[in-house]
Amino acid sequence: MADELMLEIVSPEKMVFSGKIEEVTIPGTEGEFGVLRGHEAFLSSVDIGELNFLKEGKKTLYAVNTGYAEVTSDKVTVLIETAERSDHIDKERALKAKDNAETRLSQLTKEDVEYELARAALARAIARISVAEKQ
Prior knowledge:
This protein has 135 residues and is an alpha+beta fold. It folds into 2 domains: 5-86, F0F1 ATP synthase delta/epsilon subunit, N-terminal (ATP Synthase, domain 1, Sandwich); 90-134, Single alpha-helices involved in coiled-coils or other helix-helix interfaces, CATH 1.20.5. 27% of the residues lie in helices and 43% in strands. The chain is built from 2 helices and 10 strands. The chain has helices spanning 91-106, 115-134, and strands spanning 5-10, 15-21, 23-28, 31-36, 42-46, 49-55, 58-64, 67-71, 75-80, 83-85. The strands form 2 sheets. It has a 5-stranded mixed beta sheet with strand order 2-1-9-8-5, with no helix packed on it. Strands 4-3-6-7-10 form a 5-stranded antiparallel beta sheet, covered by helices on one side. A hairpin with a 3-residue loop joins β8 and β9 (75-80). The model has no long low-confidence stretch (mean pLDDT 95).
């Protein structure tokens, strides 16, 4: 197919996904962005959230952590801390992580060293729950 775009999602542990797709949507730190073949080249930081792509008319979703994306006219490379496909997410575990993070945040002030870690843990848990519920 002429409009296919190569996508690679890479974590420190493994190649999470590599294949031809039609389009991808990525949670950038400056806002969500979508990429089709022929897109202008750019680099972007990636935020905690939902990454999804369309392949053969089927949408696949991942809950992702922070990282970077490199876009060229025919390839997108996402270097990410973690990426978890929607059908592999343990929703009960994510709900417990959300509760734990909320409890930690309620006991901290913004000046506490651990505040940002707890805030990020909460954001990751919320992203995982949201992606799991969409599968």
